[in-house]
Design a protein that fits this description.
Blueprint lengths: L1 H16 L4 E2 L3 H14 L8 E2 L13 H20 L8 E3 L4 E2 L11 E2 L5 E3 L32 H13 L3 H7 L12
Parallel strand pairs: 1-2
Antiparallel strand pairs: 3-6, 4-5
Helix pairs in contact: 2-3
């Protein structure tokens, strides 16, 4: 059947888009390993988790995306647990390289979008709220009636965090995040 062939083709493209990143399913084990390394040796680390390119069959509360979010949540909880008392001095940022559209496509998934969300967690984070620039979600604010604008540029948010965490000045931040203006949104 043609539809099955298209779904297989798109699934292959989604796998290729992961660029050898670990899967969300493998993130829990990797998160524990990274926590041990950070406690022993490093003060900053990065991990790339794939499996988020949901053009096909994204699902709802129990679908493909919900499963990946559950796996991500278990990995983040494992990281915090493994950090132990060091969690109170840890800042963790979850970010995507692109957002997803608000409207479902013809394959019961969503396409690449512009605006995204960043999750910032840690023992010293002033959390439990939505921070940064916001705008009302309605047809007049959506591009092509399905996509949200970038309101909080990730380099500016990271620069604001780095200024607080590492005491970096504007020149140092410009070297790390060229052209971005640090934005302290009150997370720390």
């Amino acid at each position: 059947m043609v539809q099955d062939e298209v779904v297989r083709e798109l699934a292959g493209e989604m796998d290729a888009a992961n660029r050898n990143a670990i899967s969300a399913k493998g993130f829990e084990l990797e998160a524990r390993r990274i926590a041990r390394l950070m406690k022993e040796t490093y003060t900053i680390g990065f991990v790339d988790v794939g499996g988020w390119d949901t053009h096909v069959g994204e699902g709802g509360a129990t679908g493909y995306l919900a499963g990946r979010l559950d796996e991500l949540g278990r990995g983040l909880a494992a990281f915090a647990q493994e950090m132990g008392n060091d969690w109170r001095d840890t800042v963790t940022v979850v970010i995507s390289e692109f957002g997803r559209t608000f409207r479902e496509n013809g394959n019961r998934g969503t396409d690449h979008g512009h605006g995204s969300v960043y999750w910032v967690l840690g023992g010293g984070i002033h959390g439990g709220k939505i921070l940064g620039e916001q705008m009302r979600l309605d047809p007049s604010t959506l591009f092509q009636n399905r996509d949200f604008a970038v309101l909080n540029e990730y380099r500016a948010v990271f620069a604001g965090l780095f200024a607080r965490l590492y005491g970096l000045n504007a020149n140092q931040l410009d070297h790390i995040f060229p052209g971005a203006t640090a934005r302290d949104i009150g997370l720390i």
